[in-house]
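Can you please make up a whole protein chain along with its C-alpha cells because I've never seen that pairing?
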Amino acid sequence: VQEPEEKKIALELLETEQAYVNRLYLLDQVFYTELMKEAKTGKTVPEEVVKMIFSNISSIYQFHAEFFLPELRKRMEDWNCNPRIGDVIQKLAPFLKMYGEYVKNFDKAVELITAWSEKSPPFQELIADIQKRKVCANLTLQHHMLEPVQRIPRYELLLKDYVRKLPPQSPDRGDAEKALEMIFMVAKHSNAAIAEMERLQNLWVVYQRLGLEDDIVDPSNELIKEGPIQKISTRNNSTSEKYLFLFNNMLLYCVPKVIQVGAEFQVHLRMDVEGMKVREQKDTEFPHTFLVSGKQRMLELQAR
C-alpha cells in the first residue's frame, strides 16, 4: 500500500527532528558543557566567552528534546486513527521566537570561536578533540552551530509541502494552515531582527569613519549611498577630491583626512535633504556635473 504523500512529509519532519535533537544535544551537552567545565577549572577561556558563544542553545535544546520531539512522535504513532500534526506545530511556533536571540548572536559567536582559538591553544585543543569524535561526523563546531539557524526555514518548507499535499477534507487542514502562518510570521520576525542588526552595525561603522559627531549619530538614520566626488571650483577652474555620504535625511559633504588616525573623514558641510534640489549641468569642460543646492549653500560637483 502506497503511503499517502502527507504522511511521508510528516514522517520526514519527525526523522529530521530526531536528527536535529541529536545535533542540539551535541552543541549543548557536549561542546557547551565541556567547554564550560574547562572554563571553570582551567584558565583556557573566560566563562563569559563560552556563554556568549552558545547564547541560549540550552533552552532551544530542552524545548525540542523534552517537548516538541516527544509530541511529534506521539502524533506519528497515532497517525492511522488520528492523522494530524498541525496542532502540535501551533504549540511549537511561539517558542521559535527563542531563535531570534541565537540567530542574532551567530556571527559574533563564530568570531569569538576564531579569536579565542588563536588566543588560547587549550581552548582550540579541546574543540579539536571533540570534533575528532565519531558523533561530530568530521564536521566543525561552526558547522554544527549553523544548524539551528537553518531549522526554521526547514520547518517552513516541510509544512508548506505538507499543506499542499493534504486532501481537501483532511481533519488537519485548518490547523496545518494556521500553523504555517504562525511559522511564517516567526521566520519573518527573525529575518527582520537580523536585517535591523546589520543595518545598525553598518551605520555604526560609518559613524566611526566620520568621527562620531553628536549631531550626526542617530540610530534611525539610513545610509543610502556614499562615494568619492570632485568639487568644482569656478574661481580657478579646478577640481578637488571630496566625499559624500547621503542619508535619508541629510547629505554630508566631507574631506578625506590625510593622516588617518581615528576618523577617516572630516565633515565640512551638512545639508538637509528636506528642501534640497539637484540639477544636472550641461558643462562641456566638466562632464557629469550637477548642482546641489540646499538651505545652507550650493555645491557644484562632478561625478566619475
